[in-house]
Amino acid sequence: MAHPSHTAMSTANTFPALLAEHARVRGDRPAIREKHLGIWQTLTWSQVHERVCKIAHGLAQLGVRRGDHVAVIGENRPQLYMAMMATQTLGAVPIALYQDAVAQEMVYVLQDASVAVVVVEDQEQVDKMLEVRDQCPAMQKIVYDDPRGLRHYTDEALMSCEQLAELGAQHQRVDPDLISRCLAEIRPEDDGAMFYTSGTTGKPKGVVLTSHALIDRARVIEVMEGLTDREDVLAYMPVAWIGQNMFSYMQLLVTGFTVNHPESPETVPIDMRDIGPTYYFAPPRVLEGLLTQVTIRMEDAGWFKRKMYDWAMGVARRAGSRILDGESVGLLDRLQYAVGDLCVYGPLRNALGMSRVRVAYTAGEAIGPDLFVFYRSIGINLKQLYGSTETGVFVCVQPDGQVRSDTVGPPVAGVEIRVSETGEVQLRSPGLFKEYYRNPEATREVKTEDGWFHTGDAGFIDQEGHLKIIDRAKDVGRLADGSMFAPKYIENKLKFFPHIKEVVAFGDGRQEVCAFINIDLEAVGNWAERRGMPYAGYTDLAGRDEVYALITDCVNQVNADLARDPRLCGSQVSRFLILHKELDPDDDELTRTRKVRRAFIAQKYGVLVDALYGGLDHQYIETEVKFEDGRRGKISADLKIRPARVSPVQIAKAA
Q1: What is the predicted pLDDT for the residue at 582?
Q2: Which of 7, 96, 506, 574 has a C-alpha 20 to 30 A away from that of 148?
């Protein structure tokens, strides 16, 4: 039930107006929590509003004006969130950058957006900015949150968040009407935020989204899911990813709930159990990692617990999702599921920190059906959504009672979808981006004059009006025999196994499908230790015959499953190898959101692709790697190539 103060939807139509309204309506309610030294610290909406006003005055004193860009770099931190709010209060535009990007990766964005003021989290990010400052002539000030390690830094460009707030307090006394003047000038159609794409096929592009587009999409989901100001959210993904930004920043300002910031990335599992979020968001790779942890724990458990878990999961697969969807389920299955919930599912949800989750979303890339069903079967209301940076995130969302593993749901309110003759999904939406910053040619390539956006995704709308995404249109291909090849679908099925972390499948125009596989070091390492198998690191473990046998079994199981799929039965994996290193964003093999750069990998490891298709049983390779501190090194190995069992096709092929 909605809290009394939140029964009527807000009429505020800009982010600064929303913040002011929350301070007025629910000023004493918690807005942002942060765990510091093991203790949760709380800021109310009134405190956040007061602080944001001071920071806005401070930024104004530094010369930030309407339409300017302010960069924000770091983990989810209250000061960084309030810096974004303050930027928007002045009518300026915040740009969040990935905190794990190396300094040189940030240069293009800082130059392209002519960023004069950068607000960063800590010494690591300060050092990056000082390293590239000479390449960014517009940069004037670097404001930092955490002062640890910076005591002896004397550069005049540096300023702490506290100093910025003090500067703002002085400016506030001189010009007390600044905020009210700014709020009167800001319009919903003004630029609200800018996000840079991951640049999988060239330089990143600045995606400009208006305040109206972002607020409209957040409100649609608020209504659809019945969100209230009593929700608890955990913000743990990069704020530079629009998914996290929408979920924990924009929806925070629209709905007025509480966002919680973990102490560090390492403490997220503990902090999640502390908070027990009611509204949760995770990309598939996070859900894969959590499932891997569960599997490792069960492998280490005693005989009785393992048997109990196996029995309970059998019941869950049979009845769990149907019970969650309110479908008719037999009395025996309901009783068995209740026992499983008491003994297994309930404790498991608690261990995952998901006991209070009312709505959970997964997005960012396609999720494997087995992984998706696992979470729903244990009673977690996990739903898929479809969207992108350019569409303001929310395009399709699965409504309660209409959740299926093979679709992303129907379009949400305001969205129109059509599928072109080539199979590409195209759409119109109030949440659509305004333009690519200073790149009209790129804007014209993806956005028609009448407002249709080319998503680049291949898919179709089923008889129930749900959208089904097959893969990226450029990645969907055909095998030599003409049958469909959808690499992401195959990769996701393999990644359901806890021992497999990443997969890159090849097959377009080929006679058969082959694959690169990354093992999950933690899961396979645990498996090896329980068998008394010593190893010296990832490369050593990945090359073991025993590990190849383990992964071969996973591939064979996926092939047996694909043999029953009329569209993809021809895409069974014939041969594979286990890579000698983990695919890494620092080596340009993954984007910062951990999406595979398929074309780059095929080119970089061309000798391995040739070996897979050339019938070789091993191939030597030497690969250059980039370390976090910028140093470079090399990893070499003689990789084994193994065949997999291709199962007989059990149905007629579909073109």
Answers
A1: 95
A2: 96
The lowest-confidence range among 152-161, 291-300, 601-610 is 291-300
Residue count (the chain):
655
Residues 6+ apart with CB under 8 A from 506: 487, 513, 514, 515, 516, 602, 609, 612, 613
- Extended beta strands in 275-379, E state: 279-282, 359-362
Q: Would you state the pLDDT for residue 201?
A: 54
Per-residue pLDDT band for 2 (boundaries 50, 70, 90) equals very low
pLDDT band at 4 (very low <50, low <70, confident <90, very high): very low
The pairing of strands 500-506 and 484-485 is unpaired
> Exposed (0-12), middle (13-18) or buried (19+): which is 242, by Cβ within 10 Å?
buried
Bridge partners (DSSP) listed for residue 40: 35
Q: May I ask the CATH architecture of the domain 11-210+235-247?
A: 3-Layer(aba) Sandwich (3.40)
Predicted local distance difference test score (pLDDT) of residue 499: 94
Cβ 256 vs Cβ 22: under 8 Å: yes
What does pTM read for this prediction?
0.85
Task: Look up residue 504 and give its two tokens.
Answer: 């890159």
Would the CATH topology of 11-210+235-247 be identical to that of 477-643?
Answer: no
Tell me the domain boundaries of the chain.
11-210+235-247, 401-473, 477-643
β-pairing, 141-144 vs 117-120, is: parallel
CATH fold of 477-643: GMP Synthetase; Chain A, domain 3 (3.30.300)
Q: What are the helix (H) ranges across 447-590?
A: 487-495, 521-530, 538-542, 545-562
Residue range 407-427: average pLDDT?
94
Query: DSSP H helical segments within 563-605, as ranges?
Result: 598-604
